[in-house]
Specification:
Layout (H helix, E strand, L loop, with lengths): L2 H41 L3 H14 L4 H14 L2 H14 L4 H13 L3 H14 L4 H13 L3 H14 L4 H13 L3 H14 L4 H13 L3 H14 L4 H13 L3 H14 L4 H4 L1 H8 L3 H14 L4 H13 L3 H14 L4 H13 L3 H14 L4 H13 L3 H14 L4 H14 L2 H14 L4 H13 L3 H14 L4 H13 L3 H14 L4 H13 L3 H14 L4 H13 L3 H14 L4 H13 L3 H14 L4 H14 L2 H14 L4 H13 L4 H14 L4 H13 L3 H14 L4 H13 L3 H14 L6 H13 L1
Helix pairs in contact: 1-2, 2-3, 3-4, 4-5, 5-6, 5-7, 6-7, 7-8, 7-9, 8-9, 9-10, 9-11, 10-11, 11-12, 12-13, 13-14, 16-17, 17-18, 18-19, 18-20, 19-20, 20-21, 20-22, 21-22, 22-23, 23-24, 24-25, 25-26, 26-27, 26-28, 27-28, 28-29, 28-30, 29-30, 30-31, 30-32, 31-32, 32-33, 33-34, 34-35, ...
């Protein structure tokens, strides 16, 4: 290589080295610059700006633990709990001994009501640092929530000993003493916390809440006002003071405080949204609508305000205007999870569940941590007949946000339908924890106690619900149930009638009243009482359904059919009305009419699993096996393990020359779903027979004939299996039994011919 070439190469290599080194230094320097900029913004309380800078630093180095940690702190300060959880988890993965991150994550678990997980993490921190006071306090709070109140008190006392000059341990001890019904000791602890540091804001707010719960209004007011004076630039004390005045019955004063707050900081979202949020929380929809409508004009770039306004429009059934505004958001960002959820919610309200389902599924994919999206998807699934899917979505919703009481209520309703008392208890606990002054929690807990046989405890809860809201209709109904179980029928009737007086559409009260009369063997009295209520409320689908059921009970089937027809016509989502209408038509030998009813049901509810199966059974019975096969396939598309559809489709395939291997797979699914059924045993045996597996067929058919000895088809199949296994005498025995049980069956001549051939041989 000549000198010139070597020189050029050397220069080139030097330049490359310097370029690579420069890039490395540039990346490290840029990361540091972004990080320091983020810290500067953080110190100024500019958390959105700080978040952007920390994210820029992490993009350069995804394993930058301190960057993830600081980003988590930004999210915590903004209340973005799911994002904070993600960043804290990443921080701990990169730096397991980051005990502050461990503690922050433990606090998030506590906030999500995952108390055992919070406790475990607090203990881990204390093992590393026994003097970590925050971990000690979290341990006490977690034990209290887990029901270990004595252990919690001891742990709080230990925290006081660890830091006797700090207010936080006394504050925690005060809350626990109050929880343990020690109001004097609790008050003393709150006073001690304030004496140690009169400017410690949590002590003022905590003491105010203590006095509020004691209904010592003047003393509570003094603490909340002191909190406002301590933190004039913090929105939290003002919101707390407004809530206090609302609880005291001084709504006008609460509004004035929030109106003044809005004027004080008209550019700060946390201040100017407070008044609208107050109206929302207190269900003052009219004022909330007006306030957020005004805010949308004043702050057109505030997406949160726009979405809240759209949500209130939807609640007010101003769907057209809401969707027009919502489409503006989706036009800019088609994957905006909140806008997709709002669109799905509007469609749900319009009962367009088929249309809402894919939209809400998209919302959940866009943001799997959005609890309200999961809740609305659960609603769409439920109203489409997908019970399993709805339960899954509602459980996910309350996992993400236990205080989402709409989802808790749906789970409670589902628990009542399915008899899942553990789920009912969980929903009741959530209501009592997050809305202790609402009657619903007491109604749910009382219902749980009622189902468990604790009539006294149930009555206490129902009466507490009425004390909180005298027109709580369901509480009167449940008190009627208590008296019904006690066989104090006159009082039970009075409670049911009270419920119906408050709400003429109180279907449960009317149902239980009718049931009580039927229990007393007074069917005519039951019928007349239901007819009176139907006359009062002629447009109620549930009442016509009940009237049809009472007529059926009284053996007046011909009169019940028009009532089921009315119920279905009034509400196309009243699935039971359709099913009972079709059933009554079948019993009246009106198969074509029943088929037409099922077609209507599936037209309105195309994803209803039960309708597909029921219609399939009808079509199979009518001899329309091709259509039955189509319906069973449709059912299996909705739920691949539906045992009746799998069983019947398998049998149809075997009988009509379908794929024997696929039929065998379906029969195995059916058998797993219905392991004690003679029908699934026969179908699986028939599939084994068609696939040449005769010994397995014999075992199952032997079981089937023992379970259902009068079924000729089972004996016939067993005879064929024995025949293929060259067990002639056993084959003859089962053929004869099949013929004896059903001498006119379609297979009778075939059996006689086989027996004749054996005899002649």
């Amino acid at each position: 290589m000549n000198t010139r070439v070597r020189s050029i190469l050397a220069v080139s290599l030097s330049i490359s080295f310097l370029w690579i080194t420069g890039c490395f230094r540039s990346s490290a320097a840029r990361k540091a610059q972004y990080f320091e900029s983020g810290r500067a913004y953080f110190e100024q309380g500019k958390y959105p700006e700080a978040s952007i800078q920390f994210q820029n630093a992490i993009q350069i180095d995804k394993d930058f633990a301190e960057g993830h940690s600081q980003l988590a702190q930004c999210f915590l300060h903004q209340g973005f709990w799911n994002e904070a959880h993600r960043e804290l988890t990443l921080t701990i993965t990169l730096e397991p001994r980051n005990w502050q991150a461990q503690l922050d994550l433990a606090n998030l678990f506590f906030g999500a009501r995952q108390f055992q997980e919070a406790r475990t993490r607090a203990e881990s921190v204390l093992k590393e640092d026994p003097n970590q006071i925050s971990a000690q306090l979290l341990l006490a709070s977690s034990d209290a929530e887990l029901g270990n109140i004595q252990a919690a008190l001891q742990e709080a006392q230990q925290a006081v000993q660890m830091a006797p000059d700090k207010p936080a341990p006394y504050l925690s001890l005060g809350f626990l003493q109050e929880k343990n019904h020690q109001p004097l000791e609790s008050e003393h602890s709150f006073q001690r916390a304030i004496s140690l540091d009169p400017r410690f804001l949590p002590s003022r707010l905590g003491f105010g809440s203590f006095y509020l719960r004691q209904q010592r209004w003047t003393e509570a007011e003094a603490q909340y006002r002191a909190a406002v004076e301590l933190a004039p630039n913090d929105s939290l004390p003002r919101a707390a003071l407004a809530s206090f005045y609302f609880a005291w019955g001084k709504k006008d004063q609460a509004e004035r405080i929030l109106q003044d707050a809005k004027k004080a900081k008209p550019r700060d979202p946390s201040w100017y949204r407070m008044l609208g949020d107050f109206y929302l929380v207190n269900h003052d929809t009219e004022k909330a609508l007006a306030e957020f409508g005004l805010l949308r004009q004043e702050h057109p770039d505030d997406l949160k305000v726009k979405e809240l306004y759209i949500g209130i429009l939807i609640q007010s059934r101003q769907i057209v205007q809401a969707m027009s505004l919502n489409e503006e958001i989706l036009k800019q960002n088609p994957k905006d999870a909140e806008a997709l959820t709002l669109k799905g919610q509007a469609l749900n309200l319009d009962q367009k569940f088929i249309e809402s389902t894919p939209i809400l599924e998209s919302a959940v994919r866009s943001n799997p941590d959005a609890p309200f999206a999961h809740f609305q998807l659960g609603v769409a699934y439920s109203r489409s007949g997908n019970t399993r899917g709805s339960e899954k979505e509602w459980r996910e919703a309350v996992k993400l946000k236990p205080s989402l009481l709409e989802a808790q209520q749906e789970l409670a309703n589902l628990a009542l339908r399915t008899g899942d008392w553990e789920m009912l208890e969980q929903s009741a606990s959530a209501w009592l924890a997050y809305a202790p002054t609402a009657p619903q929690g007491y109604v749910l807990r009382g219902t749980d106690r009622l189902k468990g046989g604790d009539l006294s405890g149930a009555e206490t809860d129902f009466r507490q619900a009425i004390a909180l809201e005298p027109r709580t209709v369901i509480a009167y109904t449940r008190l009627g149930d208590v008296r019904f179980l006690q066989k104090r029928f006159t009082q039970a009737e009075q409670f049911y009638e009270q419920a119906l007086e408050y709400d003429p559409r109180a279907i449960e009260a009317l149902q239980e009243l009718a049931n009580m009369f039927l229990f007393q063997k007074q069917p005519e009295k039951a019928l007349k009482r239901v007819q009176v209520q139907v006359a009062k409320v002629p447009d109620d689908s549930a009442y016509h359904l009940l009237l049809g059921q009472v007529l059926l009970t009284g053996r007046k089937a011909s009169q019940s059919e028009p009532e089921f027809e009315k119920a279905a016509a009034l509400d196309n989502s009243n699935l039971l009305a359709f099913f009972l209408l079709a059933q009554s038509q079948q019993e009246a030998h009106q198969a074509d009419a029943a088929a037409s009813t099922y077609e209507r049901l599936l037209r309105e509810n195309p994803k209803n699993l039960e309708a597909c199966v029921a219609f399939g059974l009808l079509e199979e019975h009518r001899g329309n096996w091709q259509h039955a096969e189509e319906l069973y396939r449709r059912a299996l598309d909705l739920q691949a393990t539906q045992p009746v559809a799998a069983n019947n489709l398998s049998y149809l395939l075997l009988e009509h020359g379908g794929d024997a291997n696929y039929a065998l797979a379906l029969a195995q699914i059916a058998r797993r779903g219905m392991p004690s059924s003679a029908t699934t045993a026969d179908t699986l045996a028939w599939a084994y027979y068609k696939n040449g597996i005769y010994s397995s067929a014999i075992d199952l058919l032997t079981e089937a004939t023992k379970s259902a000895p009068q079924n000729s088809a089972y004996h016939y199949h067993l005879g064929l299996a024995y025949q293929k296994s060259n067990q002639v005498e056993l084959a003859k025995e089962n053929f004869r039994r099949a013929l004896e049980l059903d001498p006119k069956s379609p297979r009778a001549n075939e059996i006689r011919q086989a027996l004749l051939e054996w005899t002649s041989n």
